[in-house]
Amino acid sequence: MEPVSFCPHCGHVLERGERICPGCGIEIVDPPRFESLSFEEVVENSFLRLEKVALRGYERRLEVARLRLEELDRELEQIIELAIPSCRQ
Ligand SMILES: [Zn+2]
Q1: Pfam families from the entry (predicted)?
Q2: Measured in angstroms, how far is the CA atom of residue 25 from the centroid of ligand 1?
């Protein structure tokens, strides 16, 4: 079986000796090696990585929502400031 390794950042499968991930473009400094793993372990590993990638997508959406909330918070503060100028001294 061909040696299999994955991008530590996005989980994309890497060819042997590949230095730049074709999935996310990150530089592979020390590619993880799975030569000694069984097929089942490699498959399990890819699923774990897929889970991680999915989780990262979820975290990104949460972060976007958080930033929007912060924006709303600032807007609300400005509205309050305009409505009641004396409350922010
Ligand atoms: Zn990658």
Answers
A1: Zn_Ribbon_1 (PF13240)
A2: 6
